[in-house]
Protein: Phytanoyl-CoA dioxygenase family protein
Organism: Sphingomonas colocasiae
Amino acid sequence: MKLSQERIEEFQQNGFLILPELFSAEEVAQIRAAADRVFAQDVPTNIREKKSDVVRMATGLHLRDEIFARVVRHPRLIEPAQQLRGEDLYVQQAKINVKAAFDGEQWQWHQDFSTHHHEDGVPEPLALNLHIFLDDVNEFNGPLYFFKGSQKFGHLGTWHDTVSTSWPLWVIEEKDVRRVSENCDLQSITGKAGTALIFGDCMLHGSPPNMSPWNRSIFSMIANPVTNALTKTDRADHQHHRDLTPIRPLADNCLLDQIAA
Ligand SMILES: O=C(O)CCC(=O)C(=O)O
């Protein structure tokens, strides 16, 4: 699947692209069934919320279930990403950010690049975050908030927050969030299940807790150019995979094809 020139320019201007209902209900059902399988496992790659036992994030997914091994090579995600970067990409991370009804906690203001750079020594902010909504995401169940166009500010002032949630995060200093807010509109990213979203490594974003009675799960993979790979391996493999094999897209119907028993 190729993006039009107009959509490429929109990405360059706003720093993100929403692709409404890119995946069918049947495809989302396959991914959700795989998600249920991995959430049921009692493994360290399922990270739980700080204040409850509920899964916050399930990581390393393409190594844990065949469906996710296909999702990370899905042409509707990978071809636009390759087009935007113009080079080979590897799977840096493959996860689901859950945000369960009532229990899902916040994501503080951050740029993904801060973590990629400080923790893994990624040289440039070229990674792309590719999402598929596995539930309808509305204004109440903890949507992502984006400062539209904030990528143009480059890498902002950051500090390592190890206390607010169960996932240590390099977050953005308040003075820089204020500075960006004077120039960029804030947008909440909502859409039906099956909607895809692409955003870059310097997008200033966060999301509020989910106090609604509706779950909000989002599949998220980070795809990074092979030429911009990690230079440090301090973090575990599921936080930044070391396998730099270029992603080669599968056929468009790969999620609906029979999986060999
Ligand atoms: O799932 C969310 O609400 C935010 C996740 C996020 O910001 C991230 O993975 O970088």
